Amino acid sequence: MSDFRVFYLGVGSATPSLRHQPSCQVIDFRSRLFMVDCGEGAQIGMRRMKLKFSRLEHVFISHLHGDHFFGLPGLLSTMALHEVGGSLTVHFPAEGVDWLIDTMDRFCKYRSFDINIEPIPSEGGLIFEDNSLTVEAIPLNHRIPCTGFVFREKPRLRSLKKDMVEWLDIPIKLRHGIKEGNDYITDDGRVFKNEQLTIDPAPAKSYAYCSDTRFEPKIASYIGTTDVLYHESTYLEQDRQKADERFHSTAADAVRMAALVKAKVLVLGHYSKSYQETQGHLDEANEVAQELCPELKIICADEGLVLDI
Amino acid sequence: MSDFRVFYLGVGSATPSLRHQPSCQVIDFRSRLFMVDCGEGAQIGMRRMKLKFSRLEHVFISHLHGDHFFGLPGLLSTMALHEVGGSLTVHFPAEGVDWLIDTMDRFCKYRSFDINIEPIPSEGGLIFEDNSLTVEAIPLNHRIPCTGFVFREKPRLRSLKKDMVEWLDIPIKLRHGIKEGNDYITDDGRVFKNEQLTIDPAPAKSYAYCSDTRFEPKIASYIGTTDVLYHESTYLEQDRQKADERFHSTAADAVRMAALVKAKVLVLGHYSKSYQETQGHLDEANEVAQELCPELKIICADEGLVLDI
Hints:
The structure is a homodimer. Helix content of chain A is 27%, strand content 28%. Chain A has helices at 42-48, 72-81, 97-107, 162-168, 172-179, 194-197, 217-223, 240-245, 251-260, 279-292, and strands at residues 4-10, 24-29, 32-38, 56-60, 87-93, 114-120, 125-129, 133-139, 147-153, 159-160, 184-185, 191-192, 198-199, 206-210, 228-232, 265-269, 297-300, 306-308. In chain A, a hairpin with a 7-residue loop joins strand 8 and strand 9. Chain A binds chain B through residues 14-18, 40-41, 43-44, 47-48, 64-67, 70-71, 73-74, 77-78, 81-82, 96, 99, 102-103, 106-108, and chain B through 14-18, 40-41, 43-44, 47-48, 64-67, 70-71, 73-74, 77-78, 81-82, 96, 99, 102-103, 106-108.
């Protein structure tokens, strides 16, 4: 099983429907959960996908349209009732932090877990880092301040060649340094180069989340490159005018961004409820990809999708 | 089709589950909709039961536990996006009105409908009245201020006997008075008593909603009598201690209240998620009813139930 995967809980747009839930994704990175957006019904989505509240460590809210955060008070209240311990950090748009604090103080006062509310800088930048992962905020171009997020695994340490370690009987205290790239010098002065002792680690992976936004090439420069890109595709090109007016993207726009950030996989979502099904999105995206980036794999997300990064 | 019916959108308790939605009911009274409580997912429940947002005129929120009102921001936002016209009145616990105004101002500013927010007096009393209906708030006994609601149809006018009206050629301007109980005196002085001219109207009906509360006989004195009583039954008698500690009722408590208010029908709901199914509630209620009020009809509500009052 992959240790970096994304669960899609809601891939609909502005108004929930019987077909789609509002935006919510959960990233499972080495057994810790990171939620991105939290539309109404997110807590039910977690139950449905058997994601434990107690493993949830961070929530990132892209912007303050209700379909991206109205599930948060309910989720936090339920976590409080469940007597989940530990701590949870909510990365929230700066202009709404006072509202969230007020809402928690009023309706979710008695909690068994600590809650930290971190304002997201609208200019973007690094907002989370630990030994194995970074999360960067990416300024998007929507009607109100909106940020995307890039989850980037840090390069893993090199893997020791077990037979060499045993043959040379390398002391345990030196092994970490060798994983980091050191050579090994024996007591009698013989030098073993690092490439004799280790093999390349699995490549570090990354996942970028872009919702909601108009297509703008500048966004790609913030993202850099990514293995997998989730990009909103509220509309199709046939509804280009609506997309422009409402600061949203088409399926074709999403492919254009995927090409700029050299993604291997593009995941589409945030479909307008005016489309009954997603075949149109897939067809439009594949057509554009054939020209721009024929290797790109395109997936239309649906509630319940689980994707290994 | 009845012109006074209740749609049950959510009959679960504190935390939503895959089995039950949080509290929400919609009363359809002569084609106008009155929502009682608005747990997360209420807007989806309306779609599922094909209840039009444009017909919703009043929302009543019993108390400020999240499972009774966290669906409200999403519902109002969706109504705004749908460009529903007219006006909507939200009857909201007084201590939360400033929060609701702030939330609407921030996240649901551009609305095509007028919204009136009316604080509910914690001491109860008449909170709505028009030509055909009254709604009274009933103080309940919960951990925080909580009110129930009684929807009471006003007595209908008497029905004219069509043959008498034609035979006597009663002027149109006098007919309303006769429906109200007047006699009719002909130009030559003959008196026709009202009971010769009219028949009894259909009896006026009432529906009382009690959630969340401990059992307290005083509540019955506020309700008076009602045809149909919805009463929370979070627990069974086997969990009496939990019920007492958490200010909730058992199925047996609900029957006791039904007996006091002389209800003909009792609807149970707000089940704790610790029970897998409702047979235990039905059995316990029927056992108590056999002694106290053997004529009582008992229904365990489920999502999707529609009940004619």
